[in-house]
Amino acid sequence: SRTVRRLNFGTCYVIEPIEIHKATIVWLHDLDHIGRRCLEPLKDLNLPSIKWICPTAPRLPVTSLAGQNATAWCDITKVSESMQHDFESLDSVNSYVADLLSTEPTNVIKGVGGVGLGAAAALYFASSCAFGKVQIKQQMINPQIVIGINGWLPGLTSLQPNMNNAFGTFNRAKLQRILLLHGTSDDVVPSEFGYKCAVSLRNNEFPTMFKQCGGNHVMTEICVWLTQTFGL
């Protein structure tokens, strides 16, 4: 087992639903951003039954930024299949996201999503939930909605062993719905790596859709997917 790193998270911003509350999604920003920057794009989706929770990451020294401090969900090196992962910080983020969802009504759909490093943290949260490693009030949590833009799955190489390590992992994986979107011109996270993560998730029973798109098409794809898949 790993020690969970204690992190000091920043300001959390919330978009309240203006119609019947059907879903709550925790949305995680990219490296060196803040939660407030996510508000306008999410409002523009015009999905009035969703509550969006947009936390701000702690400030950490980031290896890929030559050790400079930045808002980051974890430390990060150059993105690749063989990259090192800051699992201690990611486990702390898992606990934080679970706490944010713990006060939401039991009858609403729970979800997590993000951009870049935030997408990586969201996918790590989702996979950890499938492994049975994330709990709210001693009850396992399992997000039904998972969205990642230009992201990847930390610990990709250990996905299959972890899936076979605990009871109920494949059943929990099947209950998640994952949408992964990737720009073709992303020079930080190659789309080929994003696609490989999607294939691995799909091969391990996570219902996963992967699409390459950019610009305004990204938010349109999210809006259509949430509407058609969940009636939101």
pLDDT under 50 segments (min length 5)?
A: none
Number of strands: 11
Summarize the amount of helix as a percent range: 25-40%
Count of separate DSSP helical elements: 7
Q: In one word, what is the shape?
A: globular
Strand-pairing-aware structural class: alpha/beta
Mean pLDDT: 93
Biggest sheet record: 7 strands, mixed
Sequence of strands across the biggest β-sheet: 1-3-2-6-9-10-11
Report, as a whole number of angstroms, the end-to-end distance.
38 Å
Gyration radius over CA: 16 Å
The string of secondary-structure elements, in order, is: EEHEEEHEHEEEHHEHEH
Which percent range describes the beta-strand content?
A: 15-25%
Keywords:
232 residues; single chain; two-stranded antiparallel ribbon; alpha/beta; 11 strands
Protein topology:
Layout: E1 13-15, E2 23-28, H1 39-43, E3 50-54, E4 59-61, E5 69-71, H2 87-102, E6 109-115, H3 117-130, E7 135-136, E8 139-140, E9 145-149, H4 159-163, H5 169-174, E10 177-182, H6 191-203, E11 208-212, H7 217-230
Parallel strand pairs: 2-3, 2-6, 6-9, 9-10, 10-11
Antiparallel strand pairs: 1-3, 4-5, 7-8
